[in-house]
Amino acid sequence: MHSKLVAESLNELRAIDTGQNVTVVYVPLSREQGAQNFLTELIELDNLRDSMGRQLGESAPPPDLKKWAHRDAVDRVAKLPRTIDNDNIVTDADTAIVDAVWTFGELLATMNHEDVYFISESWVVRGGVLKCGAPTDPRGIAVAATGNDDQDVVDQRIDYARRSVAAKDTIAVLNMGPDGLPQCRTNVIKKDLLPNAFAIGFDGHISTDCATSFAAPRIAWLLAAVEAARRDPTPKSDWAVNLFIRVTTARRDNKIASLYFDPTLLDNQN
After folding, report:
1. 170 has which bridge partners?
2. Is the CB of residue 69 less than 8 Å from the CB of residue 40?
3. Would you say 153 and 166 are in contact if contact means Cβ atoms under 8 Å apart?
4. How many Å is the maximal CA-CA distance in the chain?
5. Which of 81, 83, 179, 259 is within CB 3.0–4.6 Å of 255 for a Cys-Cys bond?
6. What is the pLDDT of residue 77?
7. Which of left, alpha, beta for 20 (phi over 0: left; psi -120 to 50: alpha)?
8. Model pLDDT for residues 139-184, shown as the tens digit of each residue
9. What per-residue confidence (pLDDT) applies to 9?
């Protein structure tokens, strides 16, 4: 059900993208969504990538390695619960899926010759639970929902949103109304930390709910659309820093809706 609502949150934005500038790929996190085979292949691919590096695209994996990669993936997916609690991603299988999703994003971007990509995370977890970092590919950035418990992201160590403050390799998304004030329920970042945080507030309303889970994919989509329109000449090793400067400047100047996320940018690509 949650994944269907996440998809719904993008309906209006995808409707204006008549030039199909943004490619959206949904990745499930539970067996309830009937994705055992997909998740198994995803983790198997990540295992092979970890073992073979760039050679994976140049030669077939040795039979023994492929057999181990598949068996390990099957074992991890078997540990997944049938359903998933957004606030309770705790198993090594979940960690493997998060790692695999980032590897998948990198390989998909390479295959499609994409310069940049965003990985939206409509879930939260307490800090230290997942034993993996943020994407290491300089072309990719994580966009993380902050959660909906009226808590401080840093004090409560809420991943991956808290990385927006220190590591600045993740964009934290809060649930904000047009007036710039928190709406519904949203976790927050302290005002004294916010000016230098890689964070954005956006509307998380959908037809039947209101949450940061629905604001985060909207921010990921909008950023992808803007980057597609910009064709930024910035070297890809520096583009995340450049994006951080533009996002924080736009937020500070209260220009996000009118300037940074101008849908007419898409018209230039049609």
Report:
1. 142
2. no
3. no
4. 58
5. 259
6. 79
7. left
8. 888 999 999 988 899 999 888 899 888 888 889 999 988 777 788 8
9. 92
| 29, 179, 191 from 98: Cα distances, Å | 9, 34, 30
| d(C-alpha 182, C-alpha 201), whole Å | 8
Burial of 18 (0-12, 13-18, 19+ CB in 10 A): exposed
Note every long-range contact of 49-55, with CB atoms under 8 Å and residues 24 or more positions apart, other chains counting: 49/103, 49/107
Query: Which residues in the chain come in under a pLDDT of 50?
Result: 86-88, 90, 255-270
pLDDT for the residue 69: 93
Q: Please, are residues 153 and 160 in contact by the beta-carbon 8 Å criterion?
A: no
Coil, strand or helix at 201: strand
CA angle at 213 for the pair 181 and 141, rounded to the nearest 5°:
95
95 and 131 in contact (C-beta within 8 Å)?
A: yes
Buried-exposed string 58-74: b where 16+ CB fall within 10 A, e elsewhere: eeebeeeeeebbbebbe
- The owner of tokens 């691919």 is 45
pTM of the complete model: 0.79
Q: In the Cβ-directed half-sphere of 114, how many Cα atoms lie within 13 Å? A: 23
Instruction: Compute the distance between CA of residue 266 and CA of residue 18 in angstroms, rounded to an integer.
Output: 8
Q: How many C-beta atoms surround the C-beta of residue 141 within 10 A? A: 25
CB atoms within 10 A of CB 114: 17
Predicted confidence (pLDDT) per residue in 27-58, tens digit: 776 666 667 787 888 888 888 988 988 787 77
- Cα angle at 148 between 93 and 225, to 5 degrees? 80
Distance from C-alpha of 206 to C-alpha of 204, rounded to nearest angstrom = 7
